[in-house]
Design a protein that fits this description.
Two copies of one chain form a homodimer. Chain A is an alpha/beta fold and 348 residues long. Chain A folds into three domains: 44 residues, no CATH class; 131 residues, Rossmann fold; 144 residues, Response regulator (Rossmann fold), CATH 3.40.50.2300. Strand 2 of chain A pairs antiparallel with strand 2 of chain B, so a sheet runs across the interface. Chain A binds a DNA duplex (30 and 30 nucleotides) through helix 2 and helix 4.
Chain lengths: 348, 348
DNA sequence: CGCATTGGTTCAATCGATTGAACTGTGTAA
DNA sequence: TTACACAGTTCAATCGATTGAACCAATGCG
């Protein structure tokens, strides 16, 4: 800030008023060509930097949007960030960024501060446990009619736009792939957090199990953090069961990678000795050892749609809140295959 | 922005002036307890949101810092982001974020725009090819005396603070570990970008080779992007050589993961049949298959130091520019070991 | 009683840019 | 010659908050 030149500085140097400078720098035809050029040269020479917030104060838009992610250590979410960043750059908007770290208080604070900073809109991957109250309650009155789009995770009854993955479809594709390959003994390594994603994926898994006439026993479902360590540790526990599963369905790629690491240590060949699947299909899934069967969540589509919706809202669009559900795709790779022949239950 | 309440709104409701409201909301003792409370309640009731930029206009600091990363898809850099975000949150500063995508024009644009948005400081991981000119030339006159800290990658002679990893030390630790284990046939899979990191690591590698009396042949050094695909593809080429290397030293973990993936497909056991090492030691390195020997770059230390330096500069510190070099640590895991017995050259 | 003090509040200028209205001087038409 | 249009520029209010100075009333002191 160290006393940078302002419109006044330029005006004094050229010998006109700030109004003339303001108009000239924005190429307003009201200022003559000659004067305009003198002004623009002076600005250049002085190293003038436009003050967007002073302008925004008058005009009513600071030109920023806010983005709040729950977890930066998960590349899945940074993929979103990348896609949105690109779209907002196109729209000439800067991004105010927050890493909420799955912590409600950090998220709450950001929701206040981004408003104080004049953000014109907010894209939010709500942290686990986010309630309707948090986005709609008396503490956040300023969010009323505020352009806000939720992505990836849903929060019911908030009246905001949402763009989310079709988790039900994803799990169905995955389960059917495994079931068709002959698997009957499944384990679910699930997101422990209180998120729509964790709930929806697990519910779908249970539904598919039921539909296939398979029992969902206590040792079928396991909850834990979305971390490599969790997947790694869980494989050990699953192997210790009297009848270990032949297919391990993981809530996310991250967990699956942990399982693959443990498999490697045990000399187990995923895709041959047992099947392991992820969910999200982040970039690394194609290069794990072995490559991971997963469900490709369209972070590009979701990120772009969310950006579009937000920009539309910021432009004054007043349509009723939408809930867009983006279909994912099954990506079969080496980590899944038929169960080992010795373990296939012969009918009768 | 949709006509939110302002100080005036509150003032009218309570029956005082905006000055009184301004003072009251900041708990100034000049306003009586009674009035202060009435004002604060009214603010609460109206859902008032502080306008930091209007205030900043008067006070001269908008409360934001800018952060520009070269590559978001590399978790190594998001680790930095996480550490800095935490520090800036503590300091009550919001982050204006940019993903430069290794693209100079995007970086240049951000350097201008963050200034327009009144950022009080900038942390930059310069994109490949960034020159002294880009940070010090006539196009960026506003960066003169601007609080700016470079991290991870250095740009010479710019007069800015820098916090970087000791790449020379890192490579030395890695090389000596492999050499001591008996390896004599090395390959280098290097960063193709024009960055100090790529240069310093490769130079160190060459120096150690020379010091060990080993020839650096054409098939020893290979350049390519920092991607899984590059590492994956390179293993194929290295295996096709008449005398393949026994140790593959990768510029970064990302490349090494690609190599591991290819090894898996070929049935090669890293750490047994050949050794593979990474650099950065990002979180996933402990959970690859097998776990990756790497050099732990202290993203936490670097991120924190950079934040501290920046905050100090923003507070008016005028010390001459510093260049802090943070020592990394060797982390030996399963992906490296002695060369296969059959390949160890017997002396004489 | 008169004057100074103090507590509580308002006044008014300010930060940097924007913009509708007003002004100035030139050229053209009546 | 007067009136009028018009191009080019300036005036002045405005956005929302801050702050040193001014103001006013009530109290304290001599």
């Amino acid at each position: 800030m160290a006393n940078r030149p302002t419109l006044k500085t330029i005006a004094d140097r050229v010998g006109v008023t700030v109004s003339a400078v303001s108009l000239a720098l924005r190429d307003d035809p009201r200022i003559s060509r000659a004067t305009r050029e003198r002004i623009q040269q002076a600005a250049e020479a002085l190293g003038y930097v436009y003050n967007r917030h002073a302008a925004g104060l008058r005009r009513g838009d600071s030109g920023t949007v806010a983005v709040c992610l729950n977890d930066l250590s998960n590349p899945f979410f940074t993929e979103f960030l990348g896609h949105m960043e690109a779209r907002f750059r196109e729209a000439d908007r800067m991004m105010l960024f927050c890493h909420a770290h799955e912590t409600p208080s950090i998220q709450a604070r950001f929701i206040r501060q981004m408003a104080e900073h004049g953000a014109a809109g907010l894209i939010l991957v709500p942290v686990a446990g986010t309630t309707r109250e948090d986005l709609d309650g008396p503490q956040v009155r300023h969010l009323r009619d505020f352009p806000l789009v939720l992505i990836s995770r849903d929060v019911a009854d908030t009246g905001f736009d949402r763009v989310i993955n079709d988790d039900e479809l994803g799990i169905r594709l995955l389960f059917d792939h495994l079931h068709d390959a002959g698997h009957r003994r499944f384990a679910w390594l699930g997101g422990g957090g209180d998120t729509s994603t964790a709930r929806d994926r697990e519910r779908s898994f249970r539904q598919r199990m039921e539909a296939a006439g398979l029992p969902v026993a206590a040792e079928t479902i396991h909850h834990g953090p979305t971390s490599l360590a969790f997947g790694d540790a869980m494989l050990e526990r699953l192997l210790a069961l009297p009848t270990p599963p032949t297919a391990i369905v993981c809530f996310s790629d991250i967990i699956a990678f942990g399982v693959l690491a443990a498999c490697y240590r045990h000399g187990l060949r995923p895709g041959v000795d047992l099947s392991v699947t992820g969910f999200d299909d982040m970039g690394a899934a194609a290069y794990s050892a072995p490559a991971l069967t997963s469900v490709r969540v369209r972070t590009d589509v979701i990120g772009q749609r969310a950006s579009e919706l937000l920009l539309a809202r910021m432009a004054g669009d007043r349509h009723p809140p939408v809930r867009e559900v983006v279909p994912p795709e099954l990506v079969v790779r080496a980590s899944s295959g038929p169960p080992p022949a010795s373990l296939v239950e012969t009918p009768g």
